[in-house]
Amino acid sequence: MSKVYIFEHPLIQHKTALIRDKSTTVKDFRELVKEISMLMGYEFTRDLPLEEVEIETPLARTKVKMLTKMDIAIVPILRAGLGMVDGILALVPNAKVGHIGLYRDPDTLKPVEYYCKLPSDIDKRHVFLLDPMLATGGSAVAAIDFIKERGGVNISFVCIIAAPEGIEKLNAAHPDVDVFIAARDSHLNDHKYIVPGLGDAGDRLYGTK
Fold first, then answer.
1. Catalytic residues
2. What angle do CA 112, 154, 159 make, to 5 degrees?
3. Which residues have a Cβ under 8 Å from the Cβ of 201 and sit 6 or more positions away?
4. In this structure, how many other beta carbons lie within 10 angstroms of the beta carbon of residue 82?
5. Cα(159)–Cα(95) distance, rounded to whole angstroms?
6. SS3 sequence, 146-167?
7. Res. 107 pLDDT band, cuts 50 70 90
8. Which residues fall within 8 angstroms of residue 113, CB to CB, at 6 or more apart?
9. What pLDDT is attached to residue 1?
10. How distant, in Å, are the alpha carbons of 158, 175, 196 from that of 170?
11. How far is residue 71's CA from residue 96's CA, in Å, rounded to a whole number?
12. pLDDT at residue 41, as a whole number
């Protein structure tokens, strides 16, 4: 089974509390999501491989540890996932960025792909799939399906708030995908919103209804 990592860092928890507040403005919400994503990126990149290399300081030659070639891809699920991209790119600016667009069919309630553009070498990269919310898990499962169909094999899912139902569904469908979250909430309501959650992340990021 995949591993679920909940980040308890005080700054992550504090900023997550702020984006839950319904009085937080669009500007502040957007900035906070970026900051949370960067802090989470610091945590989920702690196991990136290092190699020993020799450099020359102003005083002497020495051996230091540096990252090996970083074959990373960041893939936001449109549209809310876009809010997390810049924070992570601030840490790994050389990462390639793909995009997956999904919408929910009003009759079947199942996710339907309308856009998918991934790096051509996705099979060689560690893919971090981004979406602020993991509610039912349908979009996350479908997006991972699309990545795997195009050759992706090393995939992690990163979100800010997750419902137990979404975690369970993702684990069942893709037990090889680790999940990184800032908060695990109580449940989904009858409208499939996370409770207590923060409402619709896309609407709050972009000021839409």
1. 104, 108, 200, 203
2. 60
3. 33, 80, 83, 132, 133, 160
4. 19
5. 18
6. HHHHCCCCEEEEECCEECHHHH
7. confident
8. 100, 101, 102, 142, 146
9. 63
10. 12, 7, 20
11. 8
12. 95
